[in-house]
Amino acid sequence: MASNDVYSMIAKTFEFPGSKNLIKYLKVLFTPEEGELLMEILAPVTCKQLAERLKVDEKSLSEKLEDFKRRRLLFKKKDEYLFHRWDDNVRFFKLLKCNPGWFRKGLQHPGQTAGHRHHASPGTQRLDSPATGG
Question: Are 82 and 13 in contact, with CB atoms under 8 Å apart?
Answer without folding.
Answer: no
